[in-house]
Amino acid sequence: MNLKRLAEELGLSQTTVSRALNGYPEVSEATRKRVEEAARRYNYRPNSRAKGLATGRAMVIGQVIPTSVQHEMVNPIFGDFVAGASQTFSRYGYDMMFSRVPDVDESDIYREYRARGAVDAVILQGPLVNDQRIPLLNRIGLPFIVHGRSTGITEPYAFVDVNNTRAFQHATEFLVHLGHRRIALINGLEGMDFAQRRRAGYEAALKAAGIPVDPALMRSDEMTEYFGYRETRALLAQEDPPTAIMAASMIAALGVRRAIEETGLTMGRDVSVITHDDDLSYLKNGQDVPIFTAIRSSVRKAGEILAQCLVDQINAPDAPPEQRMLEADLLVGRSTGPAPQRT
Amino acid sequence: MNLKRLAEELGLSQTTVSRALNGYPEVSEATRKRVEEAARRYNYRPNSRAKGLATGRAMVIGQVIPTSVQHEMVNPIFGDFVAGASQTFSRYGYDMMFSRVPDVDESDIYREYRARGAVDAVILQGPLVNDQRIPLLNRIGLPFIVHGRSTGITEPYAFVDVNNTRAFQHATEFLVHLGHRRIALINGLEGMDFAQRRRAGYEAALKAAGIPVDPALMRSDEMTEYFGYRETRALLAQEDPPTAIMAASMIAALGVRRAIEETGLTMGRDVSVITHDDDLSYLKNGQDVPIFTAIRSSVRKAGEILAQCLVDQINAPDAPPEQRMLEADLLVGRSTGPAPQRT
DNA sequence: TTGAAAGCGCTACCAA
DNA sequence: TTGGTAGCGCTTTCAA
């Protein structure tokens, strides 16, 4: 069923039917009723492409997934983010679209999105330090919002980010407070903006406590299970091994745990760990929530908020870009104990 | 830049330019060269909506995400599946679209997809036993493929599934072989097709070994961390507790581990566990691969295969539906040991 | 080998 | 309050 046939059935013009269905005020109540009833009866839905062609709006939000395996998409919490975002988007009639492209072509796809008119806006995931996609998107005039931020980019852009610096500063302070002085940091790739911020928080807390920052305790790579495993083994085999480890990813944390256990040590006694591992409880409002559940629900929330910001931006393109900071909760539990006495 | 302007610039008709760009044979080589060069220069991309309107194809694959929190989307390996699928899709020029809908409206969205012409085909996730979405999709003529199968549906449909029955049968046999006779099964919701198949494999192995199937050892619910935790505590507190536990989900397994540790037992010694937990090694071709990595890569592969089947189906709509079975590897590792002696 | 023109299904302007 | 009609940007006959 299309508009033309529906109009014929009703003995009305396409114009009137379209207006009735789109809530225009100049349609008589009687006509509108009749039209709506018929539309329901014939299960009529306007064709998206025709509508989009006529209005210039796609009602689709794009998201680009670089091909390289270890990126966002394969992060297990990515699904939660998408679930949150798409919930908000669907309330406003937007669908989400994913395009997978080879890393090298990533900037091409944005031009293509723009030229093809395939999407109304895009979400930028996993921003790098000084991420050139931001100026690019501004230049080609494709509305976007960044999930995270990008140090070094001075032009304005909208983002929703978690206060990574503060979270890692607090976590480090907490470990220092427990008596730890050899605290390792298993971090993401240095090029990732969040990784730099996390390191900054970690270093700030150490400096404030008068503890020297030791490069031998800091590791940085793509956050895989193996990375966490390999570096934890190496850290624990060192001359003066860490008494605490902060792992910046749930995936890497799996490897951290395994390495500790294989070394014959006990988490929370011989080595403290602050991470997203399940072994941790989640202290939030004094409640003990399974950690994985908690993280996933907050990521989901972030998705909802980000989507709302993007919708607002699309509807008010001239407003200054929204920039939202979310606070991360401190992740502490059974695996985090006082520093062991060493002789 | 659009076709009309491009044609004007070239002093050609839209028809010729279109033909040149779409590889029609009747265009002279010289003209094609000239057109392609100009298209590149002006960074011309055909408008998706206009093209779709004219051709009747959307070049988009839909996926519906029910609103209920615990569904597929929030399964941490969902992202891997999507990554695999979208890689294949993008090779054929398809994008993936996600629509989030309240559970009650789930069948509406398919009619809407069809009516709106928003997608060319859909992927059906998490099929139930006797899933009525399958006859619905057949009825409305929207091409689809099921990730999994649906017992009780007799009409033909395409699917890609993992042999859950065999995987759980093998796993159970393996535990029996190690001397276990009290083997618990922590399973997904009974309504889910895969849950029934897993249980069938489990029961078949027990029966073959002459071990009675004990309902007190079988738990079924949405696979959350808490579910795994709660039921494992309960199982271990029973009169005659299990010596082995099979957990059918990575998430639930987090809770299983926690419950075992809190009970003061040791995995692999007091209780054997077969699951997707990180503690396990992954025996595959004799190699020791981190379990999480292994699972995720095979899910990714499943996504690629499924996407290929769907593309084939779109291009040859009259061919019989493809039905692919993938074998699951047995997940066994450090947490799986011989049955403890009980007096 | 090229071009003119009729749609695809809808919105939005202008007229009635 | 309603209708006629000109696009939106493309593909695809049909004609030349």
Describe the protein's topology.
The structure is a homodimer of 343-residue chains.
Chain A: H1 3-10, H2 14-21, H3 29-41, H4 48-55, E1 60-66, H5 78-91, E2 95-101, H6 106-116, E3 121-125, H7 133-140, E4 144-147, E5 159-162, H8 164-177, E6 183-187, H9 193-208, E7 218-220, H10 225-236, E8 244-247, H11 250-262, E9 272-274, E10 281-284, E11 287-290, H12 291-315, E12 323-326
Parallel strand pairs in A: 1-2, 1-3, 3-4, 4-5, 5-12, 6-7, 6-8, 8-9
Antiparallel strand pairs in A: 10-11
Helix pairs in contact in A: 1-2, 5-12, 6-7, 8-9, 10-11
Chain A binds a DNA duplex (16 and 16 nucleotides) through residues 2-4, 12-16, 18-19, 22, 26-28, 31, 46-47, 49-56, 117.
What does this structure look like?
The structure is a homodimer of 343-residue chains. Chain A has helices at residues 3-10, 14-21, 29-41, 48-55, 78-91, 106-116, 133-140, 164-177, 193-208, 225-236, 250-262, 291-315, and strands at 60-66, 95-101, 121-125, 144-147, 159-162, 183-187, 218-220, 244-247, 272-274, 281-284, 287-290, 323-326. By secondary structure, chain A is α/β, with parallel strands linked by helices. Chain A has 3 domains: 3-46, lambda repressor-like DNA-binding domains (434 Repressor (Amino-terminal Domain), Orthogonal Bundle), CATH 1.10.260; 60-162 and 299-326, Response regulator (Rossmann fold); 164-298, Response regulator (Rossmann fold). A 6-stranded parallel β-sheet of chain A has the order 2-1-3-4-5-12, sandwiched between helices. In chain A, strands 7-6-8-9 form a 4-stranded parallel β-sheet, sandwiched between helices. In chain A, strand 1 (60-66), helix 5 (78-91) and strand 2 (95-101) form a beta-alpha-beta unit. In chain A, helix 5 packs parallel to helix 12 and helix 6 (106-116) runs parallel beside helix 7 (133-140). Chain A is elongated, with a radius of gyration of 25 Å. At the A-B interface, helix 4, helix 5, strand 2, helix 6 and helix 10 of A face helix 4, helix 5, strand 2, helix 6 and helix 10 of B. Strand 2 (95-101) of chain A pairs antiparallel with strand 2 (95-101) of chain B, so a sheet runs across the interface. The first copy, chain A, binds a DNA duplex (16 and 16 nucleotides) through helix 2 and helix 4.
